[in-house]
Write a structure and sequence with these properties.
The structure is a homodimer.
Chain A: H1 7-26, H2 33-44, H3 50-56, H4 61-73, E1 77-81, E2 89-93, H5 95-99, H6 101-116, H7 121-140
Antiparallel strand pairs in A: 1-2
Helix pairs in contact in A: 1-6, 3-4
Chain A binds a DNA duplex (30 and 30 nucleotides) through helix 4.
Amino acid sequence: MEVTQCINFLLTRAQHSVLSYFRSRLDEYDVTPVQYGILSCLWCKDGQTATEIAQRICLDGSTITGILDRMENKGLLERQSDPNDRRAIRVVLSDKGRQLEKPLGEVVKASNQRVLDIFTKEEQELFVESLKRVADNISKW
Amino acid sequence: MEVTQCINFLLTRAQHSVLSYFRSRLDEYDVTPVQYGILSCLWCKDGQTATEIAQRICLDGSTITGILDRMENKGLLERQSDPNDRRAIRVVLSDKGRQLEKPLGEVVKASNQRVLDIFTKEEQELFVESLKRVADNISKW
DNA sequence: AACAAATTATTTGTATACAAAATTTTTGTT
DNA sequence: AACAAAAATTTTGTATACAAATAATTTGTT
């Protein structure tokens, strides 16, 4: 079987294309796609712990550490220790991080539409549904 | 918009799931998914240059260097200098690399089927087609 | 032939990403 | 209270990945 017909290859290629498109659109805000994911998580509910954020966006706990480091250095957020559980840290948005909600929200919405524009409404739904089914199914194995 | 409804997030999550499944299946052969991609490329045509391989599997040239290093250390392949163009290197399979063709081919074929098993034949074709359309379309922008 | 431009591969720097181990703290059991 | 087990985060080590810069070589132009 040709490697280029392998489902892992096809998914990886599609994901890379979409990721770089999103990266290019987010670039002017000095935010990466995964950093947008964390911001988005915090816009929804500020002050979550690192573990909560990691679970929400399906990342390993140890991956979060470095990403939060870089976001803290850029002044997007702050780590605060949780008085009730000193193991935990609470991740809190800065003004800068909060103010990005509207512009980044618009950029991501537009990018999303642009990517899905090549499909009809029905195809879009089927495609999104299929991606969810693949991810959910494998995580059960 | 919820980050979990973002097409970039959905694609990334599906890709991660499939990638880790493939990784787990390839693990007993001490080969990673991208290393399988390079092997597969060479089984098809041995002695390709790093650039040819990179283009074939859609990787940046500078990414190839490290992957070939690790594969060379594991004795899967060898770098040979091209007498006709001393800038180029020819990547040549070792016996070990060649002998993996059959067992890895089978593992990947089975993994592929297992991932796609959740779909009907029609859904499979539409899904694969959609992934290609997404990747091809964005690379034109 | 001389030299600019292009090509091939590598190096350097940065960002994800995960696994395994380590650290600190909390929870549960005896 | 003592201590084992679990939980939250970080650290360390390894593997992708890309961008920009570099080095060596080849190609194209004058």
